[in-house]
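Feature request disguised as a bug: please show the residue count (976) next to TonB-linked SusC/RagA family outer membrane protein in the output. Example input:
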Amino acid sequence: MKKQTHHSKWMLLILLMLPVVFMAQETITGRVVIQESGEGAAFMNVIEDGTKNGTATDIDGYFTLSVEKLPVKLKIFALGFSEELVDVKTTGPITVQVEESSESLEEVVVTGLASSIKRSNLANAVSTVTAEELVGNTGQTTVDGALYGKVTGVNITSSSGAPGGGFALRLRGVSSINGNNQPLVIVDGVYVNNVEIPSGLRFASGGNAGNEENSSNRLADLDPNDIENIEVLKGSSAAAIYGQRGNAGVVIITTKRGKGGRTKISFSQDTGINVIQNKLGLRPWTAQSVENTFNAAERAKYEATIAANGELYDYEEEIYGNTGFITDTRLSATGGDEKTKFYVGGSYRDEEGIIKNTGFDRLSLRANIDHRISDVFDFTSTTNYVRSNSSRSFTGNENEGGLSYGYTLAFTRPWVNLYPDANGAYPNNPNYSGNPLFVRDQAKNEDSNNRIIQGFKLNTKLYTGDKNRVRFVVNGGVDYLANETYVYVPETHQARIDGQAGFIAQGKNNFTQFNSQAIGVWDHTGLKGDLNLTTQLGVTYLKQEGNLVNGRGYDLAAGQTNVDQSVNQEIDQFKSSEEDFGYFSQIEANYKDRFIATVGYRLDKSSRNGDPNKLYGFPKASLAVNFNNFDFWTLEAVNQFKFRTAYGETGNPAAFGATFTSLATANIGGSLGVSVAGLKGDPDVEPETASEFEIGLDIGLFNRISLEATYYYKNVRDLILSRSLPASSGFTRETTNLADLENKGVELALRGDILNGENFTWNTGVQFYLNRSEVTRLDVPAFAQPGAGFGTGLGTFYIEEGKPVTQLVGSVNGELTQVGNVEPDFQMAFNNSLTLFKQWDISFLLQWKEGGENLNLSRFLTDLGQTTPDLETPEGQARLDSPANAVRFVEPAGYVRLREASIYYRIPRKNISSIFGDVISDVKLGVSGRNLFTITDYSSYDPEVSVNGGAGLSSGIEVAPFPSSKQYYFHLNVNF
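Example output, currently without the count:
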């Protein structure tokens, strides 16, 4: 009995001591705040260093953490903030300050419509371009032009060298033959319009189609200097969550936002010049070669000009030799407190072209506001107003319009005087149907744009707990564009004197694009934080409306510039309305940063599909495995070793109106009616669908070197084409699903912090990428793609099963033969950034394009006019003796180009303080250049060329382009 009592006492003592044992733990309380604003930092990770013991701060930055004993070290970190390691010797309360870090933000990548992920956990090859990479080296006119050489897997082609650009972006090859090949562009959650707007110029010049009018795409309205970063979702495996709009990839642009703390003001001034990148020069005429080429009468004119002037007239220099002055002025302010942060800024860019009276100017005003309404609600607003204007003059294809400079110069003989006389009268050109000096000085081709892009986002924190956080996000925006075009050719223009005297075209074009989405997001932290889940469900809506009106007048009254002052008038109007609606869901799972898996599904319907109410599904799945985070990993030199794989599908609906049979007006006996226009719609047409499989490996060494390697295979099914119909059907053509194609390629990106010393740092990067395409199914006979060439006589894109979609085909000895391929063998970029003694920043970007051919029909024109510079050589004469077919004009289009180079100097802080005190914090001076030199075998102005604008199969065909320029800049940046 006593023995039992003794044991009972010990048991009672142990039970009484257990609470004391647990209570022996120390409980630390504290708050994490943002250094500049003092605002609580929500959802920061607070981890006992060297253990898995941790917690997260609440919405106001407060936390509580139990530890076995003090002192301890706490590691505090989160995406977008610098990591802090804090020694804690008391239970608190303690306060820890963290800094917002742009470097950390660069490591965050969007993975869903309302979620993001650390780049180290990413399962797709998503390229990110920071503000420093985009515009930190030299001045940039447009966003797409600024991306040259900075993103693997992206082929960029200039469709015009005019100020304000004109670019075609192709992400991982061609995704459609007749449809859209430009990526979806999203700016701060707003789907923006990147349309090319025809002006009616072709009705004066005789061009074939609106895409030959040298128009800019409207991404030119966005100021690159407003951008914080750009994410490029190159393939369907990454863009699947965007459904029917993601077939050609997605470009996600995030603009600069406010930061808490005192108001900071930044001022920047760029001043520069535009000069022609590459002059072709005159044919080295002699009196004898003039007579041999033409006749004795022309020789006499040649000799008279030499006797009077001492030299020939260089009209290439006269037209393309202008030195264009560039100014770009920017002023911005950022600041805020714990409730509201703001970024406001304005910029004005004025850029003159290498052709007199051409240019581009853009006024941009921006206000980005972030406001925390309460602990539950926060709201962001993004407002951008743009007013842009351009004068692009007259270049590109025409048919005897006497306007395009390339045509005129090809036939104009340099001993003919085309300058105006003392009374200002311009002589007629005896060699062609137009005087280029008259066109430059008297004719006009202009456009103006008023645009407002308004985005919004409301975030509601429905529940916040230790393990679960639920929020509801509503965001979207409006992109409204009012465009006006103006084309004027005076009645005294040579080609119009004997015809319809004078021409005018005025366009009034309005576009409204509205998008919205509502998303529920549930973040769940599992046991000990080992398994984290992010689930999102949502709906999206997109509506686009366009109204294009173009009024034209022929036979203008003398000196008049209104359509109503013409004898013959025409009006075209094109109205469109499109609606898309979608549902999506996505689950992301992260187990200890070792396994990161994502599955998602999107259902979309569109008014452009044959059945507007039918839902089409687009799945996605991905997996990343970070082997370096496993316990068995002991290679400290290898800080990352990640295997990743992904699959996804995206779509592309038919063009507006393709589901309906088109009707045309008919006038019979004075009665107005309608008749079938000949194009048969397909009520069963389905969207083009791309499915992509991607596999890759990411390796990091010594926390300094990283390698990203990716292989992708992309199959595009049900391409929408047009086919001919027998006359007995009552129609001429039908548009429907008729083909498949594939793209496969390799992307490699190697980056390294080679040196990181006190007085010298060196960062470098090399990119390599290639793509191969093939038409794998074609349910109609092989055909020359309409509007993508000039027939098989001179060469054209040709759609043929088993061949690349980018092949050029011509008739050789009566046989259709592949004579070239515009797709490069590969492309590479080599960038370097060096900092010397903490004051000097030096950088340069080299780009190498190997292989690929262009069809140089500008040389076809100069050969016809006998003005090609090399015609004095045996090679030139031999070319004249060969048949005038595609073989003769296909040229290699590879090059090596110094795309960007810059040197900046930061004035030492102590020197600034001695003069300005604390008013000015930083001053930076610099010089830079773009397109400084190009090494190429291509014989014309620029191997990057497209006569067909940015749509469809647009690259690699040249006809009398606006030549590209190189730019030199001086920079002044001041921060207050």
